[in-house]
Amino acid sequence: MKLSLWGGDTSQLEEPAPKASYAGVLRVEPVSTSFLQAISGILVTLAGYAIALPAIAWLVLRATWFVRGRPDTFAEYRADALGFEYLEGMFASHLAIGSVIILTMLVVRYVHHIHPRWLCSVQPGFRWRFAVVCGMIALVGLNGVYWISNLGDPPTWNPGKDFVWWVLVIVLTAPFQAAGEEFLFRGYLLQAAGAVGRSPWLAVAISAAVFTALHGSQNLPLMVDRFGFGLLAGALVVVTGGLEAAVAVHAVNNVFAFGYAAAAGGIAQARTIETSTWATTGWNLLAYCLVAFVAWLVGRKMRVATRTPGLDSGGALR
Fold first, then answer.
1. How far apart are the first and last CA of the chain?
2. What is the pTM of this model?
3. Can you tell me whether residue 114 is helix, strand or coil?
């Protein structure tokens, strides 16, 4: 018997089909079973998302409200904190979104009866070396395009008095928040959509559409920006066989987006952004395409698995 922190005898969990793409990991036969599990899993995930996120943020902010000496009413403090007027609001928000990693793994384990490591990649498991390399690619690529696009208009330097604390919170929590979104949208939702359809690219489009929609109010250029990012991140997951590159790129993007905003003294505005311009969207999509392409090339060079293992002579996955 093989036990793990996920509970129960994990040796009894099902294995994905041999030579399946990342989008096909949760697909089982008959198709009706895949459909039922996918719908059940999506409903459980969305319910958990709707309940756990505000609950975790509420608990964290309730504690920090007392620590701050109960400024204003709790409702007013909570609204200001979640608008990133207070740095603990970012901490609470990112912690809550990061908890989705655990939620999606539990859904894969108990609804689909597959080990959560298959949510990370088709290896299976999280390929840390590949993730670190992709993070370095994103660090250079995203910032390089950003600085080129702002040659005539360099970023503003107007940090607030708590700038160092904001940077610390950003560096520690923004990657966690980015990973939570990737495990939800490019991870579980992409795999759930792939479980009921034969095309991984349709699954990528669905996950990108949901990712865009759940970002709330936004004008058309910002919507195109987010949808384009979702498509590229989803495609990167499919062609590299795992979440590592998408997590790394998203984490670097968020760390520097919030970091530049903190340096300019406008982090609250970055939190509530609802509009963009076509020029900004164009530069952003160029940066995403460049980084995704290089990450894909590096993945090929590193020979990262893009399909689940085949079968050995005894009929087991190898």
1. 20
2. 0.91
3. strand
How many structural domains compose the chain? 1
Domain of 110 in residue numbering reads as 15-302
Q: CA 124 to CA 18: how far, in whole Å?
A: 12
Whether residue 219 lies inside any domain: the answer is yes
How far is CA 199 from each of CA 18, 47, 115, 193, rounded to the nearest angstrom? 17, 27, 23, 9
Q: What angle do CA 43, 131, 207 make, to 5 degrees?
A: 30
Could you tell me if 195 and 38 are in contact, meaning their C-beta atoms sit under 8 angstroms apart? yes
The pLDDT averaged over each successive group of 10 residues in the chain (318 residues) is 51 82 90 87 93 94 92 91 92 95 96 95 96 97 94 80 93 96 96 90 95 90 96 97 97 95 86 88 97 97 93 47
Q: What is the C-alpha R_g of the chain? A: 20
How large is the angle between the packed helices 87-98 and 31-67, nearest 10 degrees? 160
Can you tell me whether residue 47 is helix, strand or coil? helix
Query: Can you read off the two tokens belonging to residue 20?
Result: 């399946």
Residue that has been written with the tokens 């993945």 in this structure: 299
CA distance 121 to 133: 16
Task: Determine the Cα–Cα distance for residues 166 and 182; give it in Å rounded to an integer.
Answer: 23
Q: Is residue 317 in a domain?
A: no
